[in-house]
Amino acid sequence: MTSETQRPTGPARIALLLAVGWLLAGALFKLLAGAPSDLPETIQRFPVLKPAWTFRLAIGLELAIAAIALIRPRVGWILIVLLFALFDFLLYKLVMADESSCGCFGSNAPEWLTPIVMMSIDTVLMLAVLVTLPWSRFRGSKNIKPLLPVAAILIGLPWLPLPFFLTEGKVEIKTIGDEPVAVDENIDKTDFYQFTPMSWEGKVFAEVDLIAYLENVEDPYSAFPLGQPAHVILYRDSCEHCKEHFIKLYSEPLPEGTQIVLINIPELGDATNVVDEVKPEAYADFKLVPLPRGYGIQTPVAFDIDVDLMEIRNVWQGGEDE
After folding, report:
1. Cα gap 60→71, rounded to integer Å
2. Please, how many CA atoms are within 13 Å of residue 37, restricted to the half-sphere of its CB?
3. What domains does the chain contain, in order, with CATH numbers?
């Protein structure tokens, strides 16, 4: 009879390699083509870290766990199972919320890779690891201390300023003439920017970071009707919530004298336009500069300008991410 110490590790190793390969594929897709807005909303709103930090940390941890699983499978299988269980928990919440995408493979993931499909794959791989009895199959050292420097390097990898990794925009306030204006001087090197609309409240409009990314606008002070109230709406062409907001404007008109200013957020890849037929007549219809990985913002976002102060409000909870 084959002794306990002589049991073959083949099936367990194959199951673990499949799980690690799937984990690495998702991490590398996010690293090279993803953005923080791809993360589930529950993770984006993590109370301690900014979405961009959470995004980088998630990729780094996935890479580190994959490396440990390959080099120290006797310990790594436990980390893989725990991580896939966490994935299933998050994906289950997305399935219950009827979300169409989890962003697990970045913004350009195929349409068929829905949360329920991702959850099914993760569950099958997790169970495949468990049914091979990895606790009795894998032999070798449990000591991961020598791997800690490697894990630290992999966790820090997404923060490195390499040209093919995530480059987040940085907006500063510059004085142009006698007026302060938000400017991103390195916009041509930026591939992602995360808006935080609630930080705009009470600021002069030219000082909010949104101004830095308006396409073909040289003078933000003359671009908007700051001498009278204006209702500004950030929208995407394929956003069903934006369509609902536009329709609502017809049944609930704005106060007399309020102008409408539309700001279009360009989308990655092909998108079905659902808003053109219901868009209201606008004082101005601007567009944001296209960025390779887009803008981290839910749409629609609407805010009111009254002279040079603003009142911000998210018009729908659970809007659409790019």
Report:
1. 17
2. 25
3. 4-159 (no CATH), 172-314 (3.40.30)
